[in-house]
């Protein structure tokens, strides 16, 4: 008999709520049941598409011979286009050596945490947060520490809680702005206060800005633009603003006065060991940055209408209440669990799926402390789909509530 080979201990805790809920949904779909998907942050899964000039650039790149490996840090032309955008949009100056192109933001995050965290180090992470921050921190045998974000203030970070949770083991503070899963757009005042805390304690900031141009009621301010002395590592990419999620191209930007030299060197060494991001997709990304930007306003106009409808409609459903998102394409409603038969938000999500055939993601998957009792939905679907989903949710809640 063949001996069963065990998986690694560090792999045991790996779970990704956004994809986990797909498994029971697929079982329903195998039976011919139509599921209304409000679960995944992929605009191209709905009625959005990559701009044609970017798709044309990909085809041209393949036919022009860009089919081998690129430099590990990314093509110089792409890094220069990124530098130019940051200078124009955010008035932040980077050198070519400060930029690394990665296979999506997730790879950039994985490399950065590998390069900066030792076992027992602590990383301050917004609660709720994008799950990879918690997952990858634990994978590096470090400790994710969730800080409170204030739901009544549209999920703005709780600066006092951040200050209270800093310890001698704190390595960095994470900001996700606009935020996934809440859609919060952080105010410049809050950002400056967090920058001041980082300066006071001599720690650096990790700023995830992948949704930077997807805002509805104001603009996003890059953390590095508000920080002259505090080191900032910024993540950005092309999946959201440029509607290129499956192309898997992100970039990491180091902004510091030498404080992160060792981490940046380690990052680049790890990046060289994994070869490079997609060569043809990188070439198309140059066109994305340098070509027409008209689609961004069109996308935001569509999302703003869907945001307004979702915010109004969800708050009309008994047992559901929600803050208003100001960016990205998510909404994070609260469930009155005590009024229904559910013990947890995951119970609620699975019950909603089985009975109403509406798929959302349990809030505890984004933070066991500050996400519990909520669910995340996307505002990406066409208005008709959103209306049908919320109607089904309302009927479901009427049947389930005491």
The sequence of SSEs as H and E is HHEHHEHEHEEHEHEEEHHHEEEHEEEH
Q: How are the strands of the largest sheet arranged?
A: 2-9-8-7-6-3-4-5
Instruction: Look at the structure and give the mean pLDDT.
Output: 95
Cα distance spanning the termini: 55 Å
Q: What is the number of strand segments? A: 15
Taking Cα atoms only, what radius of gyration do you get, to the nearest Å? 21 Å
Determine the oligomeric state from the structure.
single chain
By secondary-structure content and strand pairing, the structural class works out as alpha/beta
Question: What is the number of independent domains?
Answer: 2
Question: Describe it for me?
Answer:
This protein folds into two domains: 11-49 and 295-397, Aspartate Aminotransferase, domain 1 (Alpha-Beta Complex); 52-290, Aspartate Aminotransferase, domain 2 (3-Layer(aba) Sandwich), CATH 3.40.640.10. It is built from 13 helices and 15 strands. It has helices spanning 17-20, 22-30, 52-63, 76-90, 104-116, 131-139, 159-165, 188-201, 261-273, 279-290, 294-316, 345-356, 383-400, and strands at residues 36-37, 99-102, 122-127, 143-150, 156-157, 170-176, 204-208, 232-237, 250-255, 320-321, 330-331, 334-335, 358-359, 361-362, 375-378. An eight-stranded mixed β-sheet has the order 2-9-8-7-6-3-4-5, sandwiched between helices. Strands 11-15-14 form a three-stranded antiparallel β-sheet. It has a two-stranded parallel ribbon with strand order 1-13. Strand 6 (170-176), helix 8 (188-201) and strand 7 form a beta-alpha-beta unit. Helix 11 packs parallel to helix 13. The N and C termini lie far apart (55 Å).
């Amino acid at each position: 008999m063949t001996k069963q080979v065990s998986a690694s201990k560090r792999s045991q805790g790996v779970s990704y709520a956004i994809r986990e809920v797909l498994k029971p949904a697929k079982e329903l779909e195998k039976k011919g049941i139509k599921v209304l998907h409000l679960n995944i942050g992929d605009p191209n899964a709905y009625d959005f598409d990559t701009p044609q000039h970017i798709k044309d650039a990909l085809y041209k790149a393949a036919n022009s011979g860009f089919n081998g490996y690129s430099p590990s840090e990314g093509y110089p032309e792409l890094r220069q286009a990124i530098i130019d955008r940051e200078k124009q949009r955010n008035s932040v100056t980077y050198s070519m050596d400060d930029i690394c192109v990665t296979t999506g933001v997730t790879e950039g995050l994985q490399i950065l945490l590998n390069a900066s965290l030792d076992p027992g180090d602590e990383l301050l992470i917004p609660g709720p947060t994008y799950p990879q921050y918690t997952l990858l921190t634990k994978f590096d045998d470090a400790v994710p520490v969730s800080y409170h974000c204030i739901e009544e203030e549209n999920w703005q970070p709780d600066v006092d809680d951040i200050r209270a949770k800093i310890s001698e083991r704190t390595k960095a503070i994470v900001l996700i702005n606009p935020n996934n899963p809440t859609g919060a757009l952080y105010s410049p005042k809050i950002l400056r206060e967090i920058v001041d805390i980082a300066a006071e304690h001599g720690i650096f900031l990790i700023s995830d800005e992948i949704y930077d141009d997807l805002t509805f009621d104001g603009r996003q301010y890059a953390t590095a633009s508000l920080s002259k002395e505090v080191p900032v590592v910024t993540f950005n990419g092309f999946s959201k603003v440029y509607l290129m999620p499956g192309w898997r191209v992100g970039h990491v930007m180091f902004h510091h006065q030498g404080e992160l030299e060792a981490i940046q060197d380690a990052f680049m060494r790890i990046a060289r060991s994994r070869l490079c991001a997609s060569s043809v997709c990188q070439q198309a990304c140059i066109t994305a940055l340098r070509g027409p930007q008209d689609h961004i306003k069109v996308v935001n106009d569509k999302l703003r209408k869907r945001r307004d409808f979702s915010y109004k409609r969800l708050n009309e459903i008994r047992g559901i209440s929600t803050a208003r998102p100001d960016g990205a394409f998510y909404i994070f409603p609260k469930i009155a669990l005590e009024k229904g038969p559910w013990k947890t938000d995951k119970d609620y999500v699975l019950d909603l799926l089985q009975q109403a055939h509406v798929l959302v993601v349990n809030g505890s998957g984004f933070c066991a402390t500050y996400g519990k009792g909520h669910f995340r939905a996307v505002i990406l679907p066409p208005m008709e789909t959103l209306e049908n989903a919320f109607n089904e949710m309302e009927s479901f809640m009427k049947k389930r509530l005491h």
